[in-house]
Specification:
Strand content: over 45%
Number of strands: 7
Distance between the termini: 40 Å
Order of helices and strands: HEEHEEEEE
Number of helices: 2
Helix content: under 10%
Largest sheet: 7 strands, mixed
Radius of gyration: 24 Å
Structural class: mainly beta
């Protein structure tokens, strides 16, 4: 299909293809009747969308610039966990770390633009590949069967979860969207 005028602002699209694989492996150890420990290793990927690669839009209040040179993002993920499970409920703690190559990141910059004889500065967004990125954190969650503590009907539960994540790009920029 032919591109609209907005699409052609970023040149005619070129053919692109992406191929990748992903996998998962884990090991668990039931160390007691209550506790289970484990480690998981997985890979993942995200390919850029057609709009990230080919769509360009100019506007005085903010523009989007295509990037047809984008590569697929790849990740290697590690998770170390401990889980307690008995008649009182469930308690989980997970420590995780993900390392990315060719991380897809929306970058904003300020450009000068002239329109209708007037020059002004405006923001422009564009997806770029950052060489490396890392996200790590911890997640704690639990579920308590309230009928084991209080004289109430079976099935009432109290759920709670708490998480902390921090991310960093190879150019020392913080991944504020993660935090």
């Amino acid at each position: 299909a032919r591109c609209s005028k907005a699409c052609l602002e970023g040149d005619e699209p070129v053919k692109s293809s992406f191929a990748n694989w992903s996998g998962f492996a884990g090991i668990n150890a039931q160390v007691s009747d209550t506790w289970k420990l484990g480690y998981q290793l997985s890979t993942g990927y995200r390919i850029p969308t057609a709009s990230e690669m080919y769509f360009t839009f100019k506007n005085a209040y903010g523009s989007w610039r295509a990037n047809p040179a984008l590569k697929a993002e790849r990740s290697l993920n590690h998770t170390l966990f401990a889980q307690a499970k008995n008649n009182m409920g469930v308690f989980d703690i997970n420590l995780y770390q993900s390392r990315y190559r060719h991380f897809l990141f929306e970058q904003e910059s300020i450009i000068e633009q002239t329109q209708y004889g007037r020059t002004y500065q405006t923001p422009v967004q564009q997806m770029v590949n950052v060489d490396n990125a890392r996200v790590h954190g911890v997640e704690v969650k639990g579920s308590l069967n309230l009928d084991t503590i209080f004289p109430i009907p079976q099935g009432f539960k109290l759920h709670a979860a708490l998480g902390y994540s921090k991310g960093k790009l190879s150019n020392s920029t913080s991944l504020l969207s993660i935090q």
